[in-house]
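Checklist before submission:
- one chain only
- standard amino acids only
- sequence pasted in full

Submission:
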Amino acid sequence: MTVLGFLARTMGKTGMVKPSSLVKPVALTRIPGRYLAHQESLPKLPVPPLKQTCDRYLAALEPIVDSEMLKHTQELVMVFQAQGGVGERLQKGLEHRARKTENWLSDWWLQTAYLDYRLPVVIHSSPGVVLPRLEFSDRQGQIRYAAKLIAGVLDFKSMIDNETLPVEYLGGKMLCMNQYYQVLSSCRIPGIKSDSVVNYALNKKRPPSHITVVHNYQFFVLDVYNSDGTPLTVDQLYIQLEKIWNSSLQTNKEPIGILTSNHRNSWGKAYANLIKDKTNKESVRAIQKSIFTVCLDAPMPRVSDEMYRTRAAVQMLHGGGSRWNSGNRWFDKTLQFIIGEDGTCGVIYEHAPAEGPPIVALIDHVVEYTKKSEMVRTPMVPLPMPQKLRFNITPEIKRDIEEAKQNMNIMVHDLDMKAIVFPHFGKNVPKSYKMSPDAFIQVGLQLAYYRTYKRCCATYESASLRMFKLGRTDTIRSATSDSANFVKAMDDPIKQNSEKVALLEKAVKAHRAYTDMAIRGQAIDRHLLGLKLQAIEDLSALPDIFMDTSYAVANHYNLSTSQVPAKTDCVMCFGPVVPDGYGVCYNPMEEHINFAVSAFNSCADTNAARMAQALEDALVDMKTLLDQTPKAKL
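Returned file contents:
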């Protein structure tokens, strides 16, 4: 593994693989604005002061390492930040980099967190989104909805193409819109040691005008624009999708798409072999260049209503295994819309180009679009048959497919997922107590984890850095001394309720303060990473603070979490970032909260359903505590 790959691993998937939440100090607003003029006026990502980061790093360690370890780290930090020491030299190097680049972090981040990361993108990196269940139960319903969805995405794309996408604001500050311009017509390209991302729409005279549709493991090119440049109508799209459906009825084809689910080094080798053949190369390129992919899935085995959301979540993340829909994907494609014959719908996206909020904004737009009544316009001109993509499968490619199938099935069996609707309350309750809903939920997560394991753990929550040009994410460290004080007191019978409430309020405020600090570019994690990468770039020995056990503990995220708020009643989901950890994503609605909790079955100590239940209990108990304590009502 490369040094950078190791960094990515020790960071946990961090923002890397987690959809970042747009944590909202105030309501997010959108106003129309031209992309380029807007981008030029954004501030650059700052490099925080060295002493500030060192002090905050030691504070972040307090709840998660023992006193002896902390004392050792304090000594290392003192040496690191001493005047004329290595920390000061690296800080100057980073400040120089910040002056000469648009964003000192973004290229490093893309490389370390995504492109050098070698585990499969499936589960380990790509998030899924589960949309509300739809009512259709046959192929006509499936195709009709797919046609509407495609039209909705093209409607959103027109705003990107015309640069009329409304600019987003947060706390009165403009946000970087760059990620919106990265998600369509883009694809990850595998390499043997590192990957790349190609966007076929940027600065190209002839941007792609087709999407790919996959059904029964077979890929088709579907042109979605007429010769005069107008998008196909829903009726036209329906006719074209029906042609695709009818010409891909046999399922005895090799699931070529499953190759994209393998370990990146294995897929990189298989890819080099696959595209030696001219036909294969042209077919692969057509998928890579397409605007997005639509996966028309076979129905999954029926489950109870209670289990439906969990099954839908795994369907979005991995497709259910090689017997089901895992071969009905091209996992390197930035954006794939999944439409099941049984009404199970959602999205999976490759994480390198963008975080969750732009994807969710696109989804919100598309979902609203599909609800509109259609203007029926009968197409006048017969449309050509969509082109079926051909693949020549050699014995070697067949072996690669079989290996990818086996590995996918191992991953499927190892993923432990629980998706729930928390029905007791939503944003309304924390807001009624003048508390941030996100901070309230995060403190609830700390309580759930502490009750289960009798300790606090390093916790990652994504914070958006989009106030800055080309900003991606930083880490909100949810495990604080204040949250630790609260969770230890919550179940202590000696403590009075009024004291517990005071500690809860303090914990919520501490999280809120860390969030505000993070979105303003003053958090510690990306700064520490930058100092580390600067040392690697300078070819100097890695400073002791990065070789220290405390640093490893701080970056071993047993809880990797993200708030991804959406107008649509959906939930995002993703896998854990460490073998003994949990992935927790949530969408707080006004009167309920959608949660997706993941773990690995191969770890005896973790259990997604148990953690989901512990989280539900913690949130209910916190509300009960507030309701029963008169002081809280002031």
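Reviewer check: The chain has two domains: 3-114+423-633, 125-415.
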